[in-house]
Design a protein that fits this description.
Elements (H helix, E strand, L loop, with lengths): L2 H9 L8 H10 L1 E5 L4 E3 L7 E7 L2 E7 L2 E8 L4 E2 L13 E4 L3 E7 H10 L1 H74 L1 H4 L2 H30 L10 E4 H17 L4 E7 L5 E4 L1 H17 L6 E8 L3 E8 L40 H11 L3 E7 L3 E9 H4 L3
Parallel strand pairs: 10-12
Antiparallel strand pairs: 1-8, 2-7, 3-6, 3-8, 4-5, 4-7, 9-11, 12-13, 13-15, 14-15
Length: 404
């Protein structure tokens, strides 16, 4: 061993504090190893049985996480690595790669154990240094973790702030648009019924188009306002009233039957429930939920298809199913269908409309339905097969609805 190497080893924290005899005995066990630039000294998960002290060159310590390269640190002359391998028989927990031509001294686990049995002072000195190094690493990790948590907290606060700005902006614009759109809608409806329009087919067609598109816009703005309003409610704040369930669902059937017929679809309503059964609900929010499901079924069922609204009760719940034989939902899309503004197809292929086949709207209908059902203490679930259709099932607990 050249004197320069010996002096470098003396400055290595791992060997400081050893007397001359112990230091010489330890140095005699250190084997020289060299690695070319770019070579791996070892890889993560390799079996480890040796500690490395760098004499010349440098290395990178890194990990591969989820296929990504994460740099941990760089080490140079006088640094050591792989120290846990002389204490335990476990795989390496990181990879080490030579950044330059590398020369190391290596202490094998077997040699360390033999030397420790011969002179426990050497083992205690080295173990003391390793213990301090682990403690320092833990403290450094805690500081870095605290810094990362603080960065994440600030990023989350910024995301929440921007989300609140976006939500407030959408709600404000929606409220500003709702009143004039409502006026236009009412005027368009009155215009359709006017004798001047009924006598002119061209004006009648234009009037129908104005009414249809204004009605669609009115519905979308109403959904945005309802979602915003629903965020401020909880289960105990709903404005409830006694509702005749049979009358309620038959009214929905009459409302949507003409829309389904424009697509030559059959809309059925099955009521397996006692006549005059009443529940204490918020009829406005419950209607919004069921309407959203029926609109969704009409849009994603081909012309000539069948849609069924099935209402029944169990001992614990009011059950409402909206069943269709439409295009179905892909398994990978199912976790996302209740997310606001989500669409299964690319936005470049977005198609608007109230009941047109595959028209998407704003992607708020199912979000609204889920929120309204949850406000009643209920749940909503979906079963679907691609090409076969979907079944949305709403369960509303009787103890939360005040069944009479």
């Amino acid at each position: 061993m050249v004197d320069q190497s010996v002096e470098l080893l003396r400055r290595v924290p791992l060997f400081q504090g050893l007397d001359e005899d112990a230091f010489d005995r330890l140095c005699a066990l250190l084997q020289v190893r060299e690695f070319p630039r770019g070579a791996h000294v070892f890889r993560e998960h390799d079996d480890g049985d040796s500690l490395f002290v760098i004499l010349k060159g440098s290395v990178e310590v890194y990990k591969e996480l989820a296929g990504e390269h994460f740099h941990i640190c760089d080490l140079g002359p006088g640094d050591f690595f792989g120290e846990l391998a002389i204490l335990e028989n476990k795989p390496r927990n990181a990879s080490v790669r030579a950044r330059t031509k590398l020369q190391c001294r290596v202490l094998e686990q077997a040699d360390f154990y033999r030397l420790s049995r011969e002179d426990t002072r050497i083992a205690l000195k080295i173990l003391g240094v390793l213990s301090r190094r682990l403690r320092d690493s833990d403290q450094k990790f805690c500081v870095e973790l605290g810094n990362k948590n603080n960065e994440l907290r600030l990023a989350l606060e910024e995301v929440e702030r921007l989300g609140a700005i976006k939500s407030n902006f959408i709600t404000l614009v929606s409220h500003e648009l709702f009143t004039p759109i409502t006026i236009i809608l009412n005027a368009a409806q009155m215009l359709q019924e006017h004798e001047v329009v009924s006598g002119n087919s061209l004006i009648q067609e234009f009037s129908r188009m104005i009414f249809s598109q204004t009605q669609r816009l009115h519905q979308q703005i109403r959904q945005i306002i309802e979602i915003g309003a629903a965020k401020s409610f909880d289960l105990h704040q709903l404005p409830r009233e006694r509702l005749d369930i049979c009358t309620f669902f038959l009214g929905l059937h009459e409302q949507f039957k003409p829309l389904a017929e424009t697509r030559r679809q059959v809309l059925r309503c099955s009521l397996d429930i006692e006549a005059d059964s009443t529940f204490l609900v918020d009829p406005v929010h419950l209607r919004s939920a069921i309407e959203a499901l029926i609109f969704n079924a009409i849009r994603f069922t081909p012309d000539g298809g069948t849609i069924a609204v099935e209402v029944s009760t169990t001992a614990e719940s009011l059950v409402c199913r909206v069943r269709d034989n439409g295009i179905g939902i892909r398994p990978e899309d199912r976790p996302h269908i209740f997310e606001p503004f989500w669409e299964s197809q690319s936005i470049e292929h977005h198609s608007s409309g109230m009941v047109e086949f595959m028209s998407s709207g704003m992607g708020l209908g199912l979000t609204l339905a889920k929120r309204m059902v949850e406000l009643h203490g209920g749940t909503i679930a979906v079963e679907s097969k691609v090409g076969k259709g979907s079944v949305f099932t709403i369960l509303l607990p009787k103890n939360g609805l005040g069944m009479a």
